[in-house]
Prior knowledge:
Elements: E1 2-4, E2 7-9, H1 21-39
Antiparallel strand pairs: 1-2
Amino acid sequence: MAREGNVLATSFHPELGTDARVHQYFLQMLKQQGKASTAA
């Protein structure tokens, strides 16, 4: 997994497994982006 700014890339398919950490990380990114957008 790689991240640059608000872009998240994976070299696998996290939606096919049962490990939710990638999805949780993505949701955390969205929450942080939402906070940054409302603060501006």
